[in-house]
């Protein structure tokens, strides 16, 4: 009876204590006022549930060990890879906004533009995978790879066999694959085969109940990078999958991606990005990595100037979002974007509306069907905001368009792994190329126009006629945008 008599007092004290602890953390983290107030309200109303949810997804927490490795390795790797000879850019041949973006990236992301890179754009999956396999077969010293998803079957298996052959002939092979994105693959025989051949294979950001206490388990390695001999690099939107053997029967068709093959100066910061992820997971000494891969010997090749911006918790804060906003704001004539998931934050939505409002021809290409019910309807809630100011929205019908790109005035571009949603911008580890080169922009625009040719232009008049239940569902799921 004594215990029951004191129960209300104990619960009240616990309630107050929980609210005070969560409030202190929220205030010290300085989130957007609306977000912070929402967490405080939820915790005050439902203290145990609210506190549990907050500590699960309310902060971009990473383990102290990972944070330390990211801080200490990133600068050391970048300095080793990007020597002064690579950063001499003739800004007079670019729009004024390009040099401003370079300065922005330096200050908030620690990323410098490197001068002298060549590129080759690929948009057919089988050709991409077989070209990567050929490059791996030609590797003499090192193979570095990191992917969010690896899936067996089709031409992806040709890449796997090429990695095994490389390891068997003495090439140093390091492969990093996300633990959650590639979970079915980790349970297959392929990881065992790679390790048996001598490949150093590691799961990025492992998940588990105990890890929940030291960091969020929904932070994912979303990058797709291949580095060969410190000479050739690949990056873009494609996971290590053959879409003919990946998520078939889901009703949205095959995934449609693009990758770019790079040589020259840009290989250095891309290699530094991948190796930073490797060190964060393995704690392998940076000096050993630099020596074995030969990062200090990368030389310019080609005419493109490229700024590599990597983002993620513990790395560069809001650098990638700020760079995307700067790129959108730099548009004067044309702005074309492709993204599989259109769930922008308020700043990006305003930037897109402002571009259209000042007379820029803004086009956004998205897939007609995506692999997430929540994202599909949350994304549609933004169409009205964009259509009413003149943005053209195209829905691609040839499959799940997965390419992430932005083209500005056929002079500057963004190409990489980042989606226009808040998960990509705040929670995932992403990498993007900001390319200051008309030739690259022209090639990218050609690819984007091919997507438009297989798309339906959304009519603002017809879109306004959709039913009230549809609108209500879209606007309800829009509230979950920060989690998508």
Tell me roughly what share of residues is in helical segments. 40-55%
Rough outline: globular
Q: In CATH, what is the homologous superfamily of the largest domain?
A: Endonuclease Chain A
Task: Tell me the domain tally.
Answer: 3
Structural class: alpha/beta
How large is the radius of gyration?
Answer: 23 Å
Report the portion of residues in β strands.
15-25%
CATH topology of the largest domain: Endonuclease, Chain A
Q: Number of DSSP strands?
A: 19
Let me know the largest β-sheet: 15 strands, mixed
Distance between the termini: 48 Å
From the 3D coordinates, which CATH architecture of the largest domain would you assign? Answer: 2-Layer Sandwich
CATH top level assignment of the largest domain: Alpha Beta
Instruction: Determine the number of helices (DSSP H or I, runs of at least 4 residues).
Output: 19
Strands in their spatial order, largest beta sheet: 4-3-2-5-6-8-1-9-18-16-15-10-12-13-19
Q: Point out poorly predicted stretches.
A: none
Quaternary organization: single chain
The overall pLDDT average reads 87
Brief characterization of the structure:
The protein is built from 19 helices and 19 strands.
Describe it for me?
This protein folds into 3 domains: 56 residues; 226 residues, Endonuclease Chain A (Endonuclease, Chain A); 165 residues, Endonuclease Chain A (Endonuclease, Chain A, 2-Layer Sandwich). Helix content is 45%, strand content 20%. The strands form 3 sheets. It has a 15-stranded mixed sheet, with helices on both faces. Strand 5 and strand 6 form a beta hairpin. The longest helix has 28 residues.
């Amino acid at each position: 009876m004594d215990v029951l008599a004191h129960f209300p007092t104990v619960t009240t004290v616990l309630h107050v204590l929980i609210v005070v602890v969560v409030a202190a953390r929220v205030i010290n983290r300085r989130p957007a006022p609306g977000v912070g107030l929402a967490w405080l309200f939820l915790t005050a109303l439902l203290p145990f549930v609210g506190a549990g949810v907050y500590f699960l997804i309310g902060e971009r927490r990473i383990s102290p060990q990972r944070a330390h490795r990211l801080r200490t390795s990133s600068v050391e790797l970048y300095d080793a890879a990007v020597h002064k000879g690579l950063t001499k850019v003739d800004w007079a041949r670019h729009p004024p906004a390009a040099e401003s973006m370079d300065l922005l990236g330096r200050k908030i992301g620690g990323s410098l533009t490197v001068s002298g890179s060549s590129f080759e754009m690929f948009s057919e999956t089988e050709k991409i995978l077989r070209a990567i396999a050929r490059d791996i077969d030609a590797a003499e010293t090192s193979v570095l790879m990191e992917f969010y998803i690896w899936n067996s079957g089709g031409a992806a298996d040709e890449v796997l066999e090429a990695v095994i052959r490389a390891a068997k002939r003495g090439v140093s092979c390091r492969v990093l694959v996300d633990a959650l994105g590639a979970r079915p693959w980790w349970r297959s025989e392929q990881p065992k085969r790679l390790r048996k051949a001598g490949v150093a294979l590691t799961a990025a950001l492992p998940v588990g109940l105990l890890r929940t206490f030291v960091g969020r388990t929904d932070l994912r390695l979303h990058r797709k990078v291949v580095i060969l001999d410190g000479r050739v690099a690949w990056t873009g939107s494609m996971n290590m999958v053959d879409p003919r053997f990946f998520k078939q029967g889901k009703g949205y068709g095959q995934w449609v991606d693009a990758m770019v093959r790079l040589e020259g100066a840009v290989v250095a910061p891309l290699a530094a990005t991948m190796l930073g992820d490797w060190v964060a997971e393995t704690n392998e000494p940076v000096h050993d990595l630099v020596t074995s891969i030969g990062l200090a010997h990368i030389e310019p090749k080609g005419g493109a100037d490229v700024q590599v911006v990597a983002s993620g918790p513990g790395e560069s804060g809001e650098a990638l979002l700020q760079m995307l906003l700067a790129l959108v704001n730099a548009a004067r004539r044309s702005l074309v974007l492709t993204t599989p998931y259109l769930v922008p934050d308020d700043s990006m939505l305003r930037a897109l509306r402002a571009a259209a409002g000042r007379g820029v021809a803004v086009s956004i290409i998205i897939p007609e069907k995506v692999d997430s019910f929540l994202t599909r309807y949350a994304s549609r809630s933004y169409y009205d905001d964009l259509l009413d100011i003149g943005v053209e929205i195209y829905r691609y019908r040839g499959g799940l368009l997965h390419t992430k790109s932005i083209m500005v005035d056929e002079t500057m571009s963004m190409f990489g792994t980042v989606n226009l949603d808040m998960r990509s911008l705040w929670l995932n580890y992403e990498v993007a190329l900001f390319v200051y080169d008309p030739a690259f922009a022209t090639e990218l625009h050609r690819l984007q126009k091919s997507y438009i040719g297989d798309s339906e232009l959304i009519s603002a008049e017809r879109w306004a006629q959709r039913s009230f239940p549809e609108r209500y569902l879209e606007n309800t799921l829009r509230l979950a945008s920060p989690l998508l």
